[in-house]
Specification:
single chain, alpha+beta, Alpha-Beta Plaits, 5 strands, elongated
Length: about 170
């Protein structure tokens, strides 16, 4: 790899460290090509990516970045998993590590916050962006569905509801 290629890799890694919601660092020694392809496919499904890079270049790319504290994890055969969604990459890596003992999570970062192994596990347990949006939508839709149910009920139910309201007002 010549100097220009190394500079390009450092620039790409710098973009990853700056723009990702979460970055997870793990050792992948012993993973087969098929297992690595499976990990990449799972990460793609949630909008994340997996990147293997030379530790020295990754450390250079980390200089001055919010995630600079993860440089301590960049030793040995490391893989970087990242996603814009602050929990997606952590969820996939946590699940994959539980199913495959060859993948060892070392730590990571969420913005400027450094994460140890337990921190990555806590992030993995958080609901994803899509799950939060679904929860908010159901909370917002609950009153409307109650009203729609009352309106669609037989007239006797509406009459009883109106008489109850009238009694409370009196």
């Amino acid at each position: 790899m010549d100097r220009a290629q190394k500079e390009k890799v450092v620039e790409e890694l710098g973009q990853i460290f700056e723009s990702s919601g979460v970055v997870v660092v793990a050792h992948y020694e012993g993973l087969t090509v098929a297992e690595m392809q499976d990990l990449r496919a799972q990460m793609r499904e949630v909008g994340g990516s997996v990147r293997v890079a030379k530790n020295r270049l990754a450390k250079i790319a980390l200089e001055g970045k919010p995630a600079a504290s993860i440089a301590q994890y960049l030793t040995g055969m490391t893989v970087l998993a990242y996603s814009e969604d602050p929990v997606a990459a952590a969820k996939v890596m946590d699940k994959f590590a539980k199913d495959n003992e060859k993948l060892k999570i070392l730590g990571g970062s969420m913005g400027e916050e450094a994460l140890d192994i337990a921190g990555v596990g806590r992030v993995a347990k958080m609901p994803s962006r899509e799950e939060l949006l679904a929860q908010i939508a159901s909370i917002l839709g609950a009153p409307a569905s109650s009203i729609a149910g009352a309106v669609g009920a037989p007239a006797s139910n509406i009459a009883s509801i109106l008489s109850t309201i009238e009694e409370k007002a009196a």
